[in-house]
Amino acid sequence: MPGPRDFQRSDRVGEQIQRELAELVRLEVKDPRVGMVTISGVEVSKDLAHARVYFTRLGGEEGGREAQQGLNSAAGFLRRALGSRIRMRSIPQLRFIYDDTPERGARMSALISQALAEDRARHGDVDGDPENGADPDAAGGPDAPQDR
Predict the structure, then answer these.
(1) How far apart, in Å, are the Cα atoms of 94 and each of 38, 83, 130?
(2) d(CA 90, CA 97)
(3) What span, in angstroms and rounded, lies between the C-alpha atoms of 121 and 38?
(4) Per residue in 124-134, is it b (16+ CB within 10 Å) or e — as a string?
(5) 128 domain-assigned
(6) How many beta carbons lie within 10 A of that of residue 78, not counting itself?
(7) Is residue 56 part of a domain?
């Protein structure tokens, strides 16, 4: 059974900041470098003084780095806007970090697909392989029904 300290205040504050920043970036930030970004996560320090804001953006790593520069230059504006939306004594300093996880995942998926295709081309279709549509019972395997 989870204890009362398993979900810390910094986690709750991070979730609230993530929701508010997503709306602020979408509606208020006019920097053309930012474009269409998605706030993917916020990590707030235990003392609530600093927040790392992770975001993704379509358009590759170069576009992500440009968006990071734009967001970091708008960090003061966003922090003030957060101050009017969130009731806290002190709003954390914001540091935006480009998160390339979706692009790395797509790259890994493409490499796996390529390796599987090369393996199939090299070894051909194997009889009895259920993934290739062959019937394992037709191959006369040990589990095939015996006629008496």
Answers:
(1) 16, 12, 52
(2) 21
(3) 39
(4) eeeeeeeeeee
(5) no
(6) 22
(7) yes
Of the candidates 53, 43, 38, the residue with the CA atom closest to the CA atom of residue 8: 43
Tell me whether strands 93-98 and 50-57 are parallel, antiparallel or unpaired: parallel
Nearest alpha carbon to residue 19 among 88, 85, 94: 85
Residues 69-92 have pLDDT tens digits of: 999 999 999 999 999 998 888 899
Sign of the four-CA dihedral 59, 64, 67, 69: negative
Domain count, the chain: 1
Q: Domain containing 33 — which CATH number?
A: 3.30.300.20
Domain with 65 in it? 9-104
Q: E-assigned strands of 45-125?
A: 50-57, 93-98
User: How do residues 35-62 score in pLDDT, each as one tens digit?
Assistant: 889 999 999 999 999 999 999 987 777 8
Residue located via tokens 């708008």 = 74
Number of Cβ within a 10 Å radius of residue 114 = 10
The answer as to whether 74 is a domain residue is yes
